[in-house]
Amino acid sequence: MSIAEALELAPVESHLHPEGSFDLADHPVPTGREEIWRFTPLKRLRGLHQDTPLDGEDFTLQVDAAPGVTAVSVPAADSARGVSGYVPVDRVSARAWDAASTVFEVTIPAEAEIEQATTLVLHGGGVEKAAAGHLLVRAGRFSKAIVIVDYDGSATWAENIEVVLEDGAELTFVTVQDWNDDSVHVVTQHARIGRDAKLKHVAVSLGGDVVRASTSADYIGSGGSVEMLGVYFADQGQHIEHRLFVDHTAPRTQSNVLYKGALQGDEAHTVWIGNVLIRKEAEGILTYESNDNLVLTDGAKADSVPNLEIETGEIEGAGHASTTGRFDDQHLFYLQSRGIPAEEARRLVVHGFFNDIIRRIGVPELQERLTASIEDELAEHVGRLDA
C-alpha cells in the first residue's frame, strides 16, 4: 500500500479514539467530562486546552545530528508535515498545529545504517508564555537509526510529533521528559509504519508538573511492527499521563506495548490508557499490551485502563494486562531477613521492577541514565522522610 493509498483509509471507527479534524471549531474546549480528558487536571494546563496564546519563544534547541542525518528547521508552509497521515484528535493538538510556524525535520537517508544517535535537546527558559512545536522524523527505506528527543528546563509546551518509517526501515525513537517541576507539556505523537518496517518507541517521563503524552501508530503495509516501551516515575504532586492507540490497519502486523511506572508522595498521579484496534482487514496480526505500576507510598494514585477492540477473528493473538500494587512484602522480608536495611531493600525491589524494561531499550547511555535517575528519585524521597 502506498502512502497516498494509506491516506485514504476509512476513518477510525473506534469509540476510544475521536475522529480528527484540522478545524479548531471541531474541537470544543474540554470540560473534563469527555472520555479522553476525564483523567487530566485541566486547571493545571495553563490554558493550553483553551485559548492561551502559543507564541512564546523562551526556549532553545540543541541538535547533535549523526553523520548522514539531516536535521533542519523548515517554515511550516514549506514542510512535509502531514505525511504521516495524522489529523489532530483534540483541541491542544489542533491549536499546536495552527500555532507552529516552523517544523523541525529529521531525515534518515534510504539504506543508511547509523549507529550514533541523533539527539535533540529542547531547553525551556520559563513557563510564563506558552509555545508550540512540531517535529517530523522520517526514516528512509531499509535505513536503521536512533533518534532521541530530550526535554529539560521550564516550559509550557504544546507539541505534535510525526514519525514515518518507509518500507524495511528500523528506527528507535526516544523521548525523555526530564523537565523542571513547574513545566506543563502536552504532546501528541503519531507514527506510520511501512511494509516490514520496525519501530521501537520509548517514552521516559520523570519531570514536569503535568505531562500528558498521546501516542498513536498505524501501518501502510504488511509485516510492520511496533514496540512501545515506557518508563515513568511520579513524585509528590506530579501528574504523568500516557495515552496509547495502536491502529492495526494492515494484515500480518505486530504491536507490543509495555509501560512500567512507580509513584511516591502525596497526590502523585499516573494515568495509562492503552487502546488497540484490530480492523477487519488486519488479519493475522499479533498484539499484546501491558502496564505495571508500583505504588511506593500512601497518597499516590495510579489509573490503568487497557482496551482492545477486535473486528476480525482471523488473528494470530491479542491480549492485555494491567497491574497496580504496593511492594511485595515477601520480597522485602526476604531481603531484610538477610541483613539488608529496609530502605536498601526498597531500592533493590524498585530497581528489579524496572530492570527488564530498561534493558530492552537498547541504548546503553540512556539505560545508565535511567538507572541513575531512578536512584535519585528514591534518594530524594528518603531525604524527605528523614527531614
From TrEMBL:
<protein>
    <submittedName>
        <fullName>Fe-S cluster assembly protein SufD</fullName>
    </submittedName>
</protein>
<dbReference type="InterPro" id="IPR011542">
    <property type="entry name" value="SUF_FeS_clus_asmbl_SufD"/>
</dbReference>
<dbReference type="InterPro" id="IPR000825">
    <property type="entry name" value="SUF_FeS_clus_asmbl_SufBD_core"/>
</dbReference>
<dbReference type="InterPro" id="IPR037284">
    <property type="entry name" value="SUF_FeS_clus_asmbl_SufBD_sf"/>
</dbReference>
<comment type="similarity">
    <text>Belongs to the iron-sulfur cluster assembly SufBD family.</text>
</comment>
<feature type="domain" description="SUF system FeS cluster assembly SufBD core">
    <location>
        <begin position="128"/>
        <end position="353"/>
    </location>
</feature>
<dbReference type="Pfam" id="PF01458">
    <property type="entry name" value="SUFBD_core"/>
</dbReference>
<dbReference type="InterPro" id="IPR055346">
    <property type="entry name" value="Fe-S_cluster_assembly_SufBD"/>
</dbReference>
<dbReference type="GO" id="GO:0016226">
    <property type="term" value="P:iron-sulfur cluster assembly"/>
</dbReference>
